[in-house]
């Protein structure tokens, strides 16, 4: 007789050790599709089964963005579907804090130096202690940053669509008041989704309102910053600098000034490295299998009407 | 009549706005030496008053190390003397965490790149999540690092002289068991004082026991690492890399291989930047003036017998 407490999970396509371990950690057992209560899917929609047995009550998808799944018409209302939304937030938050710290403490020039330039670099070393950091678009990644930034003694000024207070932030503003943050905060982390409203959110006008020591970190989408205006601000030293994991255009072309400006730091869209995905996804799967077994609400349930 | 609740503090030599602000924040008022209950001194012993009035019950010195003051015979037993020990720990801890994060996430090569090398860099991005970080010599700086590292999801393995459990560390080992950490921890922060016992603590033998992904951070003294053995390990990729704020020799000579090895990151002894000293010292002074006014034990009281 099967152990009724251990949910039977179909893992596909094929076997992935890291995900299988995650299912086991969550208390699940691997099963064939015909015998499964749930499906954990490790790839895109192309190879997804055309028809799921009615016994499958839950499907875990592998990505945070689920547009291709919705477009393929696969997400039905006969079972619960979950995405990987939020699973990767911790890793991106870690990278964003690294970029901010590296900027504020002048690491870019230090790493590029090939001689001991202490007298030159020492006066440029800043600190996050006592700094106000605005997180513009404070969703899952921003929320994961707050305990990190506050551990360093920084205060967080959160901007969200609704303005509902974000736990741990010193203050939360609704998106309609975004304009206020540029002159108020010491540094900025851009973490908003790319929409028509957020395109070139950081432009010549907003850059002009920032403090001359302000660092701008972008871990969202390159299009949220007007690259030309940013290069001007960096060349004129009207802000402290910019640390960008995403760029516009992306990939950033060889020879672009952002590669060599002393106050610019580029990482090639690796805040959420592909190599980390299986492990991170496996942790998310383990948590959801455990919740499924206990009959608790699952993480990152998809609402097909809202589209995420 | 003077406000008996506000301690009268002599600030010397001369007036320093940042320190005067710190005294005011702590609830003190500035006074002439003849009228003072306490002295806050902003420079070295050369210009210190030859004789202090008996009414001076406390002297705050500006540095963490007080060897010159002891050598000059100024530290007497007629009053309390305090140093700035611990005041700078937060700033050094911030830098040490930055160096470790930069190493683990591959930032060194990313910052030096002048083209979009995503496919090459992506697989080398690590994380502090779930990592075990050994802090070898877990004093004030190490203790200030623990809440930072644990916020990132790392566990701390502390090594102290006594082995008395360090709050927040997953485990504390006495210095006599230091040998155990090299194969156990994922990464290492060297934060021990430079003594005969700690000279070349990290040598060819200890490097050989580290994991191939291990990063070594040194924010203590360059002599704690055998530089030649470290260069060999970095060239052979037997460890992940090294991020050093202190070097041996120091300053590191131009042309030294550590300047250009892809897995080495040098910052020129700026973890505790000179420019940050007045502000950091002012915070320490404010805290001590407040304690003095309240009759509470002061921070960093000097024991002339122990010499610190």
UniProtKB/TrEMBL annotation, chains A, B:
CDD domains: 2-Hacid_dh_2 (cd12159). One of its GO terms (molecular function) is oxidoreductase activity, acting on the CH-OH group of donors, NAD or NADP as acceptor. Signal peptide: none annotated. The keyword Acyltransferase does not apply. Gene3D superfamilies: NAD(P)-binding Rossmann-like Domain. Residues 98-271 form the D-isomer specific 2-hydroxyacid dehydrogenase NAD-binding domain. Keywords: NAD, Oxidoreductase. InterPro entries: D-isomer_DH_CS, D-isomer_DH_NAD-bd, NAD(P)-bd_dom_sf. It comes from the Bacteria. It holds the Pfam family 2-Hacid_dh_C. This is Hydroxyacid dehydrogenase. It comes from Nocardia flavorosea.
């Amino acid at each position: 007789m099967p152990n009724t407490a251990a949910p039977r999970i179909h893992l596909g396509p094929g076997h992935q050790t890291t995900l299988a371990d995650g299912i086991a950690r969550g208390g699940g057992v691997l099963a064939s599709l015909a015998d499964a209560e749930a499906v954990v899917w490790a790839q895109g929609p192309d190879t997804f089964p055309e028809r799921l047995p009615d016994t499958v009550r839950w499907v875990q998808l592998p990505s945070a963005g689920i547009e291709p799944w919705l477009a393929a018409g696969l997400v039905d209302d006969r079972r619960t579907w979950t995405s990987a939304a939020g699973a990767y937030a911790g890793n991106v938050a870690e990278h964003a804090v690294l970029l901010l710290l590296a900027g504020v403490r002048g690491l870019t020039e230090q790493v590029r130096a090939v001689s001991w330039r202490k007298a030159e670099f020492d006066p440029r070393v800043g600190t996050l202690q006592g700094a106000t950091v605005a997180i513009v678009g404070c969703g899952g990644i921003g929320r994961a940053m707050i305990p990190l930034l506050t551990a360093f003694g920084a205060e967080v000024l959160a901007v969200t669509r609704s303005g509902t207070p974000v736990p741990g932030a010193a203050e939360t503003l609704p998106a309609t008041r975004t304009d206020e943050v540029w002159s108020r905060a010491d540094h900025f982390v851009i973490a908003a989704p790319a929409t028509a409203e957020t395109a070139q959110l950081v432009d010549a006008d907003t850059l002009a309102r920032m403090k001359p020591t302000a660092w701008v970190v972008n871990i969202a989408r390159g299009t949220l910053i007007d690259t030309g205006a940013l290069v001007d601000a960096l060349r004129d030293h009207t802000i402290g600098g910019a640390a960008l994991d995403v760029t516009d255009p992306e990939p950033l072309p060889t020879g672009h000034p952002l590669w060599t400006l002393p106050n610019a730091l580029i990482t090639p869209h690796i805040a959420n490295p592909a190599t980390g995905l299986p492990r991170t996804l496996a942790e998310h799967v383990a948590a959801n299998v455990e919740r499924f077994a206990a009959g608790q609400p699952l993480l990152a349930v998809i609402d097909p009407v809202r589209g995420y």
